[in-house]
Design a protein that fits this description.
The chain has 20 helices and 9 strands. It is of the alpha+beta class.
Length: 660
């Protein structure tokens, strides 16, 4: 009897949607675990810093009320420092430094001694005291510049921490602008009780992956969408719980350390009788407000009353200080947690949208077929996101903020308006004047780069020229050397006293020129340096393009009786277009943003008149510390170059081939 061949039955493979949903859930769960691993460390650091800050502020406030010009006053300050180590658990070192003298120190051998310049720790204390005095002066200047500010200009401190120790230096302020000294503490942070977010997130991720596989055969696809939606909802609950616990822990630090510091402070006040007629704080909250004030009663931003800012604190109330919460500098920041959850939700929503529209299977098939291509480009994509797009997006956001009293405030378009609405073009730091200098600098440089590079390429293409390889090698040397080394060499060559340029002019009977005291002199020095560095690039590009032009075109032109100029205009230039025009566009962008030459050769001299936009943005950021203003400057530069590139491509069609 003939038997029919049996078809081999194989277990059905799960649909790509189930596999993809499982992968997305695993990736999203992993992202949240990594994010909260980082945030847990940040929140623990914030709690330790808040603890140390309260201690330092309490001691600094007490010491500021003492008269250290008498022996009894100094002894009283030393008693306060001694009690700090016993009354405030975890305080390993406490000191009061005035000028270069330790007024008090937990190491009694150092009390009354001067700083040792050879001691690294002592050098650090001296630098911190100078830094706090400088910050105070800058804050006072900002208060004068912005009279409508409500923040206290005295709000400043030095905070450094690691997993083993927190260091804080707080100023001892007398009068309106006088930093009498500093109180410095070293505190060993108390162990932070870990949350269970990692455990529950891992369990939830595994459970939802299993659920996705179990529902793989269910129809319609809404069942799988339901799994993804429930995963996001459960993750949101876990995020809320973790942020709430972290914020409540920080509020507990505020309460517990505040109470211990109040006891220390109150004991010092009672023994020193420095607050005659001053009402004793009745609670921890009143004490925190007392040490949270400057001489004029202005609140500092370490703590603030609830409701003063949008986005209320995520923790509970503070016993005895129910109206206070940590300020922006020290509050548990749950925004990154919610942003991370938002990213996860966006990824899940994108996948579920593809799932509903039936595209997940097609994407999975394409990925399986070309997985090696994705593997090759993945490092470049990750690098671009981390090193290019991430900082770029951060700079865009920073452009809408301004730095006031060492904190950042949202100002909207104010930075852009201030830059673009200043029409005093005679000022050296005016945007429009600097833009004019930048355009002139770019046009002259690129014109010389192209003309010199193309001219040399035409000469090197001549087959009758001997020793061509030697010339090519020598002419590439300026481009091969690091440009900052070349810039420093040229700067020395333009020196008035011993520079080679003035030595050469002296041989011709010309008096030495002070190149960097006038605009045109400094501009010429920058120009010569950049032309020396820039023409080899254009020469190499032009030479490569010239060698690719078919020789029979020139032979046909010779038959037609065309001259050299006609062949250059009608054959050479059109066929150079695909290579030369993109090189010119790149050259313009590079020259427009050529920071090294301007900064290293002329340094903007004289009086910042030879600065271009990029060096001006640098000065706003790293010399004036106006990072928001500098970011706005950078965004304007980007928009200028983007517009130029877009318009140039549309007009010249430089990305098209020569025969299109």
């Amino acid at each position: 009897m003939d038997s029919q061949p049996r078809e081999e039955t194989r277990p059905a493979r799960p649909p790509a949607s189930a596999v993809g949903l499982s992968i997305v859930i695993a990736l999203c769960g992993g992202m949240l675990l990594v994010l909260f691993g980082v945030l847990a460390g940040i929140w623990a650091r914030d709690a330790a810093r808040l603890d140390a800050m309260i201690r330092a502020r309490a001691i600094a406030d007490a010491v500021s009320r003492a008269d250290d010009s008498t022996e009894s006053g100094e002894n009283w300050i030393r008693d306060v420092i001694d009690s700090a180590k016993t009354s405030l658990p975890g305080t390993t070192e406490a000191l009061v430094l005035e000028g270069r003298t330790f007024v008090a120190h937990t190491d009694h051998a150092l009390a009354g001694t001067r700083l040792d310049r050879k001691n690294v720790e002592h050098k650090r204390l001296y630098d911190d005291a100078d830094e706090l005095a400088d910050q105070l002066e800058r804050n006072i200047d900002e208060r004068k510049k912005y009279p409508d500010l409500e923040k206290n200009p005295y709000a400043t401190a030095v905070l450094e921490s690691d997993e083993h120790e927190v260091y804080v230096a707080a100023p001892i302020i007398e009068g309106k602008m006088d930093v009498r000294g500093i109180v410095a503490l070293k505190v060993t942070p108390a162990p932070v009780k870990g949350g269970q977010f990692a455990l529950w997130m891992s369990i939830a991720t595994a459970a939802f992956i299993v659920a996705a596989w179990l529902m793989v055969r269910m129809e319609p696809r809404v069942s799988q969408v339901l799994v993804g939606t429930m995963f996001i909802a459960f993750a949101g609950v876990l995020v809320f719980q973790q942020v709430h616990e972290a914020s409540a822990g920080l509020q507990g630090v505020l309460t517990n350390t505040g109470e211990r510091s109040r006891v220390l402070w109150q004991g010092a006040m009672d023994s020193g009788k420095a607050l005659a007629g001053f009402r004793t704080p009745a609670s921890t909250g009143e004490f925190l407000e007392a040490i949270n004030q400057s001489e004029h009663g202005d609140p500092v931003p370490w703590f603030e009353r609830r409701g003063e800012r949008t986005g209320a604190s995520m923790g509970g109330g503070i016993p005895g200080a129910s109206e206070l919460r940590p300020g922006p500098a020290l509050e548990v920041d749950g925004r990154w947690a919610w942003r991370g959850l938002g990213v996860v939700a966006a990824l899940m929503a994108l996948y579920l949208l593809l799932l509903v529209t039936g595209r997940t299977r097609k994407i999975a098939e394409v990925f399986r077929e070309h997985w090696y291509a994705y593997a090759y480009v993945a490092p470049a994509v990750i690098g671009a996101v981390v090193l290019v797009f991430g900082p770029f997006l951060f700079a865009i956001g920073l452009a809408f903020y301004t730095r006031v009293y060492n904190t950042y405030e949202f100002v909207g378009l104010k930075n852009f308006i201030e830059i673009l609405s200043n029409f005093k073009v005679l000022e050296s730091r005016n945007f429009y004047r600097t833009l004019g200098v930048t355009v002139m600098w770019t046009v002259i440089n690129v014109s010389l780069h192209v003309s010199i590079g193309l001219g040399l390429a035409m000469l090197l293409k001549d087959k009758t020229l001997k020793f061509t390889p030697v010339y090519r090698t020598l002419l590439i040397v300026p481009w091969a050397l690091p440009n900052y080394i070349t810039a420093l060499i040229w700067k020395g060559m333009f020196n008035k006293e011993y520079g080679a340029v003035n030595e050469f002019l002296g041989l011709l009977g010309i008096e030495p020129v002070s190149w960097f005291t006038t605009f045109w002199g400094a501009f010429t020095a920058n120009l010569v340096t950049n032309v020396w560095l820039g023409f080899p690039f254009m020469m190499v590009i032009s030479l490569g393009a010239l060698q690719s032009i078919p020789a029979d075109l020139y032979e046909a032109a010779d038959v037609d009786g065309a001259g050299r100029w006609d062949k250059f205009v009608r054959i050479t230039l059109p066929l150079l277009k695909p290579a030369l025009f993109p090189a010119i566009i790149l050259g313009i962008i590079w020259t427009f943003n050529n920071f090294n030459i301007i900064y290293l050769v002329s340094a903007g001299a004289p009086d910042n008149k030879t600065d271009i936009l990029i060096t001006e943005a640098y000065r706003w950021a790293f010399e004036k510390y106006q990072y928001g203003y500098a970011s706005a400057y950078s965004m304007i530069i980007f928009l200028i170059l983007f517009s130029y590139t877009y318009v140039t491509n549309r007009i010249t069609k430089s990305t098209e081939g020569a025969y299109e």
